[in-house]
Design goal:
The complex is a heterodimer of chains A (234) and B (339). Chain A has one domain. Helices cover 15% and strands 38% of the residues of chain A. Chain A is built from 4 helices and 14 strands. Chain A has 234 residues and is mainly beta. In chain A, strands 3, 4, 5, 6, 8, 9, 10, 11 and 13 form a 9-stranded mixed sheet that branches. In chain A, strands 1, 2, 7, 12 and 14 form a 5-stranded mixed sheet that branches. The termini of chain A are far apart. Chain B is an all-alpha fold and 339 residues long. Chain B has 2 domains: 137 residues, Orthogonal Bundle (Cytochrome Bc1 Complex, Chain D, domain 2); 138 residues, Cytochrome Bc1 Complex, Chain D, domain 2, CATH 1.10.760.10. Chain B is 34% helix and 3% strand. In chain B, α2 packs antiparallel against α7 and α2 crosses α8. The longest helix of chain B has 13 residues. Chain B is globular. The chains are: A mainly beta (234), B mainly alpha (339). At the A-B interface, α1 of A face α1, α4, α5, α6 and α8 of B.
């Protein structure tokens, strides 16, 4: 076949498959940052279970490779597997997952962070483009999430706390797999909301002692474990 | 016989298809010199083209990559000295700020698995993020570099030529820089010509080659003159810097004071030597290996026994090291400042 015809065909096919995708074959996932059940706002003051008074300046995190869980089945989202959720960019706080199956969705699986393969594959595009400021310079690898703010409990410069959690190689592989099981009622009009409640993280961290994690290692692993507690679906 | 690696892939089809107008890329072949192993760099992920190479070359020599537009990659990586800095032990960056390490040479990096003195960078394509964002080097953000490039008509054209798009991204910027850096192959030194039977060593060089093979080649392995590994070669720790090298990355005590084994190609011109630039001359380096090795828990087993080189052997070794100079590379106009 002639090359041009082939290309034309390919293009037609791709555009068809893009346009034919109606709302109902996908699940729209919203991500909502909270503190103690209330919507979290930057620069508002919160008090943690540890009695630390704190405000947030920055929250950015990768949620990747989402999968829908059916009764006895899993479904991969292959087309667009990396999402950088940024509290300052409302548009970034939602993504959709293909759902072509008729089966009942019983849950959602995803990774908090970026897998090690992507971390060793050089310069990436889209959500993984290094211009997003989520790639470490002196030591390769993605920062799975950044949480920054201030607390009077931190005896640091300008009372800042900074958690940059990442690490792609064992024994400090900081990506975490997350599965949330829910019932049908959680899905309304093919939409669902994941709550990310930062109070659940800061209830486990004493900011006077732990306030700066900027490298992969044991401490990052611990924060990555605790971070799983933040996620829920109502 | 010359082994050639075929590099062009589907990019032409993809980009050509989308715009429905013919865009031509000139594929570049990455030549593997005779006797060299298979490159580590994955060219399929970043197909080399003449346009991509020229874009990368422009970026490499352009201070637009630094915050105040004063420092380019070439400020610390000069072609005539094997693409390293020569006048300082520790590299100097923006506003004269001094880094904590000596600049490295940029040669034959297509064969390198990890980058930087501690190997912290795992892929050539992401290496440039380090100098661009380092406070003591260029002190810029990649995001801002991209928007500066996007505002430049020159770069819009160069990106269009190289990648078929005027939309500049971090990914394309990094890949373009790699296309230049990965092409910096040096393989035409006297040593290479002797191996190819085009020239002959002098008696002294020949003896020096034997000394080298006995004492140095286990780490500075031929033909790349590095084993691409990390070793502690017995340097005493500089307590003002306390650089633990590879351990900073792996956090393993067994990696304390291990550094990337650097290539010795063009070593005659790449002074000062070592990660902190502590030695000015090759004589000092040889003296270090011969009688200055400091014992420590992580000292390489290859350096436990004293070398006991005679004065003659040291002179011969020096003569051999000078045969690694490749003038064609150091003065190749293709690698120089783009006119």
């Amino acid at each position: 076949m002639h090359l041009k015809t082939l290309l034309l065909f390919g293009l037609l096919w791709t555009s068809l498959s893009v346009f034919s995708q109606t709302k109902s074959d996908s699940l729209l996932v919203h991500v909502q940052f909270q503190f103690d059940g209330a919507n979290l706002k930057l620069n508002s003051t919160y008090i943690s279970k540890q009695n630390d008074t704190l405000t947030f300046d920055k929250i950015k995190m990768y949620l990747s490779k989402p999968q829908l869980i059916y009764k006895n089945d899993l479904m991969d989202e292959k087309e667009n597997p990396y999402h950088l959720i940024d509290i300052e960019k409302p548009k970034s706080q939602q993504f959709s997952i293909n759902n072509t199956s008729k089966k009942k969705i019983t849950g959602l699986k995803f990774n908090i962070g970026v897998d090690s393969l992507a971390s060793v594959s050089g310069a990436m595009e889209g959500a993984l483009d290094a211009t997003n400021g989520m790639y470490w310079a002196w030591q390769s690898g993605f920062i799975n999430f950044k949480i920054e703010g201030k607390s009077s409990s931190c005896l640091t410069r300008k009372n800042k706390f900074q958690f940059h959690v990442g690490g792609y190689s064992e024994p400090y592989y900081a990506m975490r797999e997350m599965s949330i099981i829910f019932n049908e009622k959680s899905i309304k009009n093919n939409e669902i909301t994941i709550q990310v409640d930062l109070a659940k993280l800061f209830s486990e961290i004493r900011l006077s002692e732990t306030n700066a994690i900027m490298i992969p290692g044991k401490e990052a692993m611990k924060i990555a474990d605790i971070a799983k507690n933040m996620f829920s679906v109502q | 016989m010359k082994k050639l690696l075929f590099i062009l892939t589907l990019s032409l089809l993809v980009f050509g298809g989308f715009s429905f107008k013919q865009i031509y890329f000139t594929p570049l072949y990455f030549e593997i010199p005779k006797g060299f192993p298979k490159p580590v760099y994955d060219f399929k992920n970043n197909p080399l083209t003449e346009e991509g190479f020229q874009l990368g070359r422009n970026l490499f020599y352009d201070p637009i990559l630094s915050r105040d537009n004063t420092i380019s990659c070439a400020s610390c990586h000069l072609q005539q000295t094997g693409f390293t800095h020569v006048d300082h032990d520790l590299s100097h960056g923006i506003e004269g700020r001094i880094g904590t390490r000596n600049s490295m040479t940029l040669m034959n990096l297509a064969w390198s698995k990890t980058f930087m003195w501690d190997g912290g960078v795992n892929h050539l394509d992401v290496q440039a993020i380090h100098p661009i964002t380092s406070e003591v080097e260029m002190d810029e953000t990649l995001e801002n570099v991209v928007s500066k490039l996007q505002r430049s008509e020159k770069y819009q054209h160069l990106f269009q030529d190289a990648f078929g798009t005027k939309k500049i991204t971090g990914q394309l910027t990094l890949k373009a820089i790699s296309q230049f850096v990965v092409m910096l192959t040096t393989s035409n030194s006297k040593y290479d010509k002797v191996l190819r039977k085009e020239e002959q060593f002098t008696d002294m060089e020949q003896k020096g080659y034997a000394v080298f093979k006995r004492n140095c080649a286990s780490c500075h392995q031929e033909p790349l003159f590095t084993n691409d590994g990390f070793e502690n070669n017995g340097l005493s720790i500089d307590t003002t810097l306390n650089d633990v090298g590879r351990m900073r990355i792996t956090q393993k005590e067994t990696d304390r004071q291990k550094f990337k084994v650097p290539t010795l190609r063009n070593v005659q011109f790449t002074f000062p030597y070592m990660h902190d630039g502590r030695f000015e001359t090759l004589n000092e380096v040889i003296k270090h290996y011969n009688s200055g090795i400091e014992k420590s828990a992580t000292l390489s087993p290859k350096l436990q026994q004293p070398m006991l080189l005679s004065d003659d052997e040291r002179t011969e070794l020096l003569a051999f090291l000078k045969t690694l100079t490749d003038k064609e590379f150091l003065f190749n106009p293709r690698f120089s400042f783009p006119r």
